[in-house]
Amino acid sequence: xxxxxxxxxxxxxxxxxxxxxxxxxxxxxxxxxxxxxxxxxxxxxxxxxxxxxxxxxxxxxxxxxxxxxxxxxxxxxxxxxxxxxxxxxxxxxxxxxxxxxxxxxxxxxxxxxxxxxxxxxxxxxxxxxxxxxxxxxxxxxxxxx
Length: 145
Fold this sequence. Notes:
single chain; alpha/beta; 8-stranded mixed beta sheet; two-stranded parallel ribbon; 4 helices; 28% strand; globular
């Protein structure tokens, strides 16, 4: 089964990735505190959906980021060493700190993260871990099993 969603483009790009999903806010600092080159296992013990799972190269589907003002730099630094998600797909509007991190990653690293926000609650309720995600440059996100 396939379902299409349309969101607002924050960072352009295309991708075909597997979904990793959280319905909780994503704490970037806690999630990336053990980040190593090309490897990151989510270390946020408060996020039961992601804790202990790899966040590298996936389409991270989330409502919003939470946590400290370091969030943007954490995303940027993750991209610098290659332990970043392949894409960020927000059901809600993205916060300005995460925007900064994703834009810096796109401009200054070889690991950009296509980023789409405002995909809506229906998107987050529909997508499940492991589903296929196709991202188009115009903000279209196609989810299939």
